[in-house]
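Model it.
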Amino acid sequence: MARPWRVAIVGGGITGLAAAVRLRDRAPTGTEITVYEQSGRLGGKLRTGELAGGPVEFGAESFLMRDPAGGESAAVTLIRRLGLAGSIVHPTVGQAALVVDGGLRPVPGGTLVGVPGDLDKVAAVAQPAAAADRDGGAPLLPPDADVSVGALVRDRLGDEVVDRLVDPMLGGVYAGRADDLSLVTTMPALARAARVEHTLVGAVRAAQAAAPRAPGAPVFGTLAGGLSTLVEAAARESGATIRRDAAVRELHPTPTGWRLTVGPTRDPQFVEVDAVLLAVPARPAARLLAGPAPEVAAAVGGLDYASVALVTMALPEPELPELSGFLVPATEGLLIKASTFFTTKWGHLRRPDGLALVRASVGRYGDETSLQLTDDDLVATVHRELSKVLGAPLPTPVARHVQRWGGALPQYTPGHLGRVAAARTALRAAHPTLALAGAGYDGVGIPVCVRSGETAAEEIITALGGSAA
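Modeled.
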């Protein structure tokens, strides 16, 4: 009788845990799955904590309900699989604002990550250079080409649309700048439409029409018990052996699979497995790939990351606008780049004592000196800037928390997906039982990470001679 498969997953974030669940569901019965997490905590950027006696997210806050084609997102499907669908809740306040000339203005409707499909709707925030978006008789983007989002939008609609709309929206997600970020990676639907349409406004409308949303259908969701409940359920349902505080330091091919070197240099453990799934950021993955696949390691290791800090404050009965939060263009000169009014946005978090939870994000790629401030100075600066934007002094916080995420957000420059595809092709050819998954390759957001982990798990099953059907 053949012995069970042994699969190692390096990385205990949602990508690795989703992969573990998929392996448990589709790999042969008896498959031994081990998740190695170098820290003492599972979940990666999903981390539910507590502030002033109430739950609050110290990392990712929500997930998209639909996928780009309009179907159920991979996150929702996983949540259903784990029996947590009854815990899904949606924002009760969806309107957000932009800081423009020091004041708050509603984020205009009809845009795709800030790129307008109706120029009249954005006029209160930015004046598009409409005359530049002429039909030149050819598609905006040649086949297989990629450009930065900023380059395309500046060329077609001018600087104000980028600086006041697109840049803060992309910055809120990636902590990067529109002029640096890949259109194909960060806005794939718009990139597909741009290969057909002759104007940018037309491409936005075509992208929106390709994935219609039912009126009133929620865009975002979260879990009433906090996103850490997703992490806990995935770890439990995967049936995997979870090894915390277990750093995988080396990876070597063997005649039958792989040998992992785990733990401290002075007392290493050597583990033999049939397949390995790397679900860690690009640079740690590159270090592990340096021996068995140096060219892939060089390609993967070139990805850069932005660091951010999330400052959450519990404020006694503040006067807050009926908004989910606001985004801050870099041109406003503020330290904060975004803020979320948790207890306004999420009805299930509202408290009878009137205490409000407000979070601000600090740190932009290439300008991270603000992150060198102490926690106390960060909180003081955020409090002062929030008061300035809102036009009235906020009360002194009764509790606060600073969560620093070093190297948290990948910065996808043009050509990113092509480089990743080439690296994966080379890796499959040389080492089919070694797979890469995670935000460093496929994009940010919980659904993308879940799908990335699941896809890598299916590749492992196929490479070992099974069927992922």
